[in-house]
Amino acid sequence: MAGFLKTLVPKRFRKEGVAIPVVRLHGAIMAGGSQFRPALNLATASAALEKAFSYKDAPAVAISINSPGGSPVQSRLIFQRIRDLAEEKRKRVFVFVEDVAASGGYMIALAGDEIFADPTSIVGSIGVVSGGFGFPEMLKKIGVERRVYTAGSNKAILDPFQPEKEDEIDYLKTLQLEIHQVFIDMVKTRRAGKLADDPDLFSGLFWTGVHGLSLGLIDGLADMRSELKKRYGEKTRLELVSAPKGLFGRKAPGVGGLSDDMAGRIGSAGVAAVADLAEEKALWGRFGLSG
């Protein structure tokens, strides 16, 4: 019936070619987030992903990734949602890396049946990192006494206002190794038969798209438009799936568009957001290469 009705529409008004839905997953990966501090996580990404995979006639979904990483939990949740939808809707997933798909960003990229990048993109950083600051000496200098009362001998473990303890550092490293192994297993499973035998592959190093291709971390060097037109024809249409609109009609953070200006967000969110924004900037700063 649909085919018959289509013939009744004048040819010049018919949409021809395959329509491929596109989802942009951009930004640092963090739980929470707000209109003033955009973050990429399952909550902000799920609606756009569900909508993209609901295109009945689309043979595939294209995902643009530009992320320096962040929360391993949110990264894995987004990865799993993409794979679940791909299997449920029987669609191929093509991932295209823009500037960066590192750490958690690369973990999400693993959801692609094929991964493409620009020759100058940054990919990899398969590792786990924890960071912070210690302030015990500062407290002494300003005459402040730290008082902590716990029920449970390890409840105040890694307190930044107390001196570091070797046993606490060892415990943290144990957790890091467990998370790292999960990441490694994901890479080996999703990139099976493609990975190079390189001792640095899981060391946390990151590479350009050119080197990433030789290591088997990606499948090719290409941009989204050219690659999809090559596969599905010159009349292929790319349809950006926008995120649902939130407060004041603004798009949900992390999906479908670029984040707001950093200074504007600081002014809107207030002093409480400065630390979060600094953390996000630090994540991007590790990969801040320029020509």
The structural class is: alpha/beta
How far do the termini sit from each other? 55 Å
Mean pLDDT: 82
Percent helix range: 25-40%
What is the N-to-C order of secondary-structure elements (H for helix, E for strand)? HEHEHEHEEHHEHEHEHH
Oligomer: single chain
Q: Count the strands?
A: 8
Q: What is the helix tally? A: 10
Identify low-pLDDT runs.
257-266
- Percentage of β-strand residues: 5-15%
Largest sheet: 8 strands, mixed
Described by the principal axes of the CA atoms, the overall outline is elongated
Walkthrough of the structure:
The termini are far apart. The chain is 38% helix and 15% strand. Residues 257-266 have low confidence and may be disordered. It has 291 residues and is an alpha/beta fold. Helix 3 links the parallel strand 2 (60-67) and strand 3 (92-102). It is built from 10 helices and 8 strands. Strands 1, 2, 3, 4, 5, 6, 7 and 8 form an 8-stranded mixed beta sheet that branches. The longest helix is centred in the middle third of the chain and has 25 residues, at 166-190. The radius of gyration is 22 Å and the shape is elongated.
For this entry, give a set of tags:
291 residues; alpha/beta; eight-stranded mixed β-sheet; 10 helices; 8 strands; 15% strand
